[in-house]
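Researcher: I'd like a candidate sequence for this fold, 602 residues long. If you have to choose between options at a position, lean toward the conservative one.
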């Protein structure tokens, strides 16, 4: 009888918890959608969106061949086949409608916020803690880069599987069901296939064990072996692929103080920006030279980080929650802290997507502790604390809503970066945006400014050459391409572009030499094969032309110009049947000149 009363008495409470949780989920989803809704009016940018989506032939077909290509290829220096498959699905049904790609990013972020709520509720046992962490995670301006940038789909997709794996692990601990263990392992694999930097997950599982007072013994460690094995495999892939597709300054060129302090600077930077998210930028360049202020910041970061670590270690016996949150932040941020230099940015806001959960968790637990009246006595003081937290969330939401507009297009994005960090990368990308808008004069000004800021930045010389070539100044274009090659001898695109300039000058021999160098450096360079095929065809070497153009089509089956040019080569050989077939394929891919030629061909 007493058991029946006990169970019956728990039912209203359980229902109340469920309804409250659903109510909280509605609040989280609604506020998140409002904060990021401006992204739905944004387009593509020229920062990796082309390499992943706009100019990527591998996502523009939905076949087993295309899927296999995605799983065997590196894109913009990253191995992320699951992310590429998501782009493929969108392109299959919506082509290049940017609204769809932004909508997917936003929906994934909203789902991630709900997973964070469930995860933090599971870890703390308090829905209020889960709500506060989820809201901070949802609307903080540091999230904008991961959500508003189409090319950063890998962040939100990888985090979805990452958070899901942690939730499944909690279920495994509570219910001891092996199926939860298996699904947790599968979720880790899917997270790593979306973005390899999810390698921190096995360590976080150990942290969850620590928070739950689970003994870390031999049996526990053996349980994690499959997780560490998968993570190690993808860590190796990341090291091999993150050399990047373009010229990046060597890490050894940095001063010793920069190399030692850069990781500590990153840690402090992320924590400070989580509290005061001002002066945000899509790009934070590595300091080429250390002035006195930067020297002080690097040194201060080192001592602040070491001091914070010492304080946490000293209080480790008093609060597992403090240790858990701190180590969660450190472990998940570690792969992105530039211990080994990757890219030419010292920090990046997208790197905070998962790590900042540790900081938010500490804050939420501290907030709950203070509201409990153990340190702050008096309803008025507690009310002021709650009002301050609520006001901060409102401010963060408004800042995020406003910052989403910065990602509207390339001109606005790089203009914002230039206002904060005028650097060669930003001026070069804005120059590209002007070039696309057919404003070559402004483009040339930006490329020249980039070269002034960094006289060794090869992409600026290459893009300056393109601008001069478009103006018909082939000699100046060749000079700029040559400079780009001088500073980056493995610059396949610069060789390919210089070949085009030589061809336009009528120097076919040098053009073919440069196309051949470009192909040797990048065997997947479809445009170089196409251009060399055109050059061979112009010399009457139709067989070589057909061979090169066929290779270009194998690399990019949607390459309309390659079909058209191969059709011309077949036509020159009087193979009218194959010529018509190629003109028809070019026509099907939207090349009007091929359609006209097809109509008048025999």
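Model: Candidate sequence:
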């Amino acid at each position: 009888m007493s058991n029946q009363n006990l169970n019956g008495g728990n039912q209203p409470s359980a229902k109340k918890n469920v309804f409250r949780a659903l109510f909280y989920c509605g609040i989280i989803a609604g506020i998140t959608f409002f904060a990021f809704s401006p992204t739905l009016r944004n387009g593509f940018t020229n920062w990796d969106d082309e390499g992943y989506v706009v100019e990527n032939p591998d996502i523009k077909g939905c076949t087993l061949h295309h899927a296999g290509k995605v799983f065997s290829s590196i894109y913009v220096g990253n191995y992320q086949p699951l992310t590429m498959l998501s782009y493929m699905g969108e392109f299959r049904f919506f082509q290049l409608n940017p609204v769809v790609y932004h909508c997917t990013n936003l929906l994934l972020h909203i789902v991630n916020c709900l997973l964070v709520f469930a995860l933090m509720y599971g870890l703390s046992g308090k829905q209020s803690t889960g709500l506060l962490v989820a809201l901070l995670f949802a609307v903080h301006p540091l999230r904008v880069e991961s959500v508003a940038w189409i090319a950063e789909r890998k962040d939100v997709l990888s985090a979805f599987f990452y958070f899901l794996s942690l939730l499944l692990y909690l279920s495994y601990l509570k219910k001891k069901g092996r199926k939860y263990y298996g699904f947790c392992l599968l979720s880790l694999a899917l997270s790593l296939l979306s973005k390899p930097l999810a390698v921190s997950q096995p360590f976080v599982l150990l942290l969850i064990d620590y928070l739950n007072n689970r003994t870390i013994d031999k049996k526990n460690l053996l349980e994690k072996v499959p997780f560490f094995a998968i993570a190690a495999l993808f860590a190796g892939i990341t090291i091999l692929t993150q050399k990047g597709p373009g010229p990046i300054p060597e890490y050894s060129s940095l001063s010793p103080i920069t190399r030692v302090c850069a990781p500590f600077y990153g840690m402090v930077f992320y924590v400070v920006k989580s509290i005061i998210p001002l002066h945000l930028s899509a790009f934070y360049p590595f300091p080429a030279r250390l002035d006195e202020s930067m020297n002080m910041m690097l040194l201060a970061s080192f001592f602040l980080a070491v001091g914070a670590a010492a304080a946490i270690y000293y209080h480790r016996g008093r609060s597992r929650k403090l240790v858990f949150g701190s180590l969660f932040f450190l472990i998940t941020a570690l792969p992105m802290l530039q211990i080994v230099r990757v890219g030419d940015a010292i920090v990046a806001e997208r790197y905070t997507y998962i790590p900042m959960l540790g900081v938010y968790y500490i804050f939420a637990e501290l907030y709950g502790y203070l509201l409990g009246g153990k340190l702050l006595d008096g309803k008025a003081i507690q009310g002021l604390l709650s009002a301050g937290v609520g006001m901060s969330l409102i401010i963060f939401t408004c800042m995020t809503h406003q910052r989403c507009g910065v990602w509207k297009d390339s001109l606005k994005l790089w203009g914002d970066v230039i206002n904060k960090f005028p650097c060669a990368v930003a001026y070069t990308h804005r120059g590209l945006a002007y070039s696309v808008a057919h404003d070559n004069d402004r483009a040339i000004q930006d490329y020249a400014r980039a070269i002034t800021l960094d006289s060794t930045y090869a992409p600026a010389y290459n893009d300056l050459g393109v601008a001069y070539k478009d103006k018909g100044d082939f000699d100046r274009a060749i000079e700029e391409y040559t400079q780009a090659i001088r500073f980056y001898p493995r610059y396949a695109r610069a060789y390919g572009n210089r070949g085009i300039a030589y061809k336009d000058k009528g120097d076919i021999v040098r053009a073919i030499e440069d196309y051949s160098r470009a192909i040797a450096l990048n065997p997947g360079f479809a445009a170089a094969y196409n251009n060399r095929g055109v050059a061979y065809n112009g010399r009457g070497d139709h067989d070589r032309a057909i061979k090169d153009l066929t290779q270009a089509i194998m690399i990019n089956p949607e390459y309309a110009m390659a079909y058209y040019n191969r059709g011309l080569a077949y036509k020159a050989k009087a193979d009218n049947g194959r010529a018509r077939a190629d003109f028809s394929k070019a026509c099907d891919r939207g090349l009007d000149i091929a359609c006209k030629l097809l109509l008048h061909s025999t």
